[in-house]
Write a structure and sequence with these properties.
122 residues, mainly beta, seven-stranded mixed β-sheet, four-stranded antiparallel β-sheet
Length: 122
């Protein structure tokens, strides 16, 4: 599986962005998908995950109520809608695919995209 993330950019605090992650291959629907982020000088952290069919979604406490993860298996794409953005959301955002149904654990992801930069100005 190859993953290509897009949709990052510069936005003011309180604004919104939607990230997309397009996957290659015909088995996209059999992977749990996740978004992680890494800010400068910090470790990569979990943001959100979604199960194969989209029934189960989990979020980091820091983004709960502001971010929404979704997927369109017909388009081999997973999305991250980010609303009410804060400066502390500034990071490189990565999408990832797991053979698990879903996961919050970085080590349980098998494939990673290249990352897209999100910068939130105050």
């Amino acid at each position: 599986v190859q993953l290509q993330a897009s949709g990052g950019g510069l936005v003011q605090a309180g604004g919104s962005l939607r990230l997309s992650c397009a996957a290659s291959g015909r088995t996209f629907s059999s992977y749990g998908m996740g978004w992680f982020r890494q800010a400068p000088g910090k470790e990569r952290e979990f943001v959100a995950t979604i199960s194969w069919g989209g029934a189960f979604k989990y979020y980091a406490d820091s983004v709960k109520g502001r971010f929404t993860i979704s997927r369109d298996n017909a388009k081999n794409t997973v999305y991250l809608q980010m609303n009410s953005l804060k400066p502390e959301d500034t990071a490189v955002y990565y999408c990832a695919a797991s053979k698990k149904t879903y996961s919050r654990d970085y080590d349980e992801y098998d494939y990673w995209g290249q990352g897209t930069q999100v910068t939130v100005s105050s």
